[in-house]
Amino acid sequence: MQPSIKKIVAVLGPTASGKSKFAIDTARRIGGEIISCDSMAVYKGISVATDKVPESEREGIPHHLYDIAEPDSFFSAGLFRKMALKVIEEILSRGKIPILVGGTGLYAKALISGLAEAPPRDEKLRDKLKLILKKKGIQHLYGILLKLDKERADKISSNDKVRIIRAIELRVLTGKKFSEVISKTEDLSKDYSVMKLCLTRKRENLYKIIEERVDRMVERGLIEEVKNLYESNKLSGPLAKAIGIRELISCFEGSKKYEDAIEEIKRHTRNLAKRQLTWFKKEIGLKWVMMDDRYEQNKVIGEIERWLRGEKNEWRNKYSESTFKSC
Question: Fold for domain 6-115+185-325?
Answer without folding.
Answer: Rossmann fold (3.40.50)
